[in-house]
Design brief:
alpha+beta, 5 helices, globular, 16 strands, three-stranded antiparallel sheet, eight-stranded mixed sheet, M1 Pyruvate Kinase, Domain 3
Length: 280
């Protein structure tokens, strides 16, 4: 096995870009999710689970360490995080009042605390976030860090849950075959940190790697649970990946709600496209 793709997402929930190499530390890929949008209408840091249109924006870092980012809007215009009117222009393009925030210290707990729910019914709120229909199960929440009950992300990060989420080429191929009319193999829907080339293996081999150590380059990861999927995989990105709820129906009903797998960093290091991947 080897690394086929590496992705960095400078702004939470916006489309990122591929890189040829990356460093990883305890928080995942360096430069990943160093910015996020705060909902100034409802409160709290919000991603595309709540503001779905964020998936139609793309972001790239313009310097080392994720200091400044350039955001490309759906109409092709660009906004720099350093622009004095950044928040105003981003809000206008989103048609939703937001502000753009760099990572804050982990002890700034109010910054990371969840904003108000959209529904007074907790089950309706969860079904909205996870895109579940009335007859579909919710994920097993025990796989998530317990602090996510109170905070939008683990304080000090803009991660959805864990530092790394990866996929295999086998999984992407299987999704494309199962969902040919829904751009099921468009990797942008699933937002992996990296993609492992698993050759001719069928299905979703990463589901069986829980508890194993993965070595890639000079880094070592511990593979955690498969990744339960939410409404984000159904969001419109562009004409090549339109909104399509069939993606999530397949994942929930045929894949036990999961695509890809989580991992944590055991040994920080670096890796590059083409590097061998081994499991122990």
């Amino acid at each position: 096995m080897k690394i086929q793709q590496i992705w960095v997402y400078p702004v939470k929930s916006m489309i990122g870009g591929q890189v040829q190499s990356a460093a990883v530390d305890e928080h995942g890929i360096v430069g990943d999710r160093t910015w996020a949008t705060r909902d100034e209408e409802r409160g709290g840091i919000r991603g595309a689970k709540k503001i779905g249109e964020l998936m139609q924006f793309a972001a790239r870092s313009t310097g080392a360490g994720g200091g400044e980012v350039e955001i490309t809007c759906p109409d092709g215009s660009t906004i720099l995080s350093s622009d004095l009117d950044c928040d105003e222009r981003l809000s206008k393009s989103l048609d939703h009042r937001v502000t753009l925030w760099p990572l804050q210290p982990a002890d700034h707990l109010d910054h990371y605390r969840r904003g108000p729910a959209d529904s007074a019914d907790p089950m309706a709120e969860l079904r909205g976030i996870f895109g579940r229909e009335a007859d579909e199960p919710l994920p097993d929440f025990s796989v998530f860090p317990p602090e996510l009950v109170e905070f939008e992300s683990p304080p000090g990060t803009y991660l959805d849950a864990f530092p790394i989420m990866f996929m295999s080429t086998s999984a992407l191929r299987a999704l494309g075959e199962a969902l040919p009319d829904a751009a099921g193999d468009d990797v942008r829907r699933y937002r992996p940190s990296f993609v492992v080339d698993t050759g001719e293996e069928e299905g979703h081999p990463e589901f069986g790697w829980k508890g194993r150590r993965m070595r890639l380059g000079t880094a070592e990861l511990e593979v955690l649970d498969p990744c339960p999927r939410c409404v984000m995989v159904t969001r419109r990105i562009d004409d090549d990946a339109p909104q399509d709820r069939a993606v999530l129906r397949h994942i929930v009903r045929q894949l036990e709600q999961n695509v890809g797998a989580y991992a944590r960093v055991v040994v920080p290091g670096s890796f590059a496209v083409g590097d061998a991947v081994s499991l122990t």
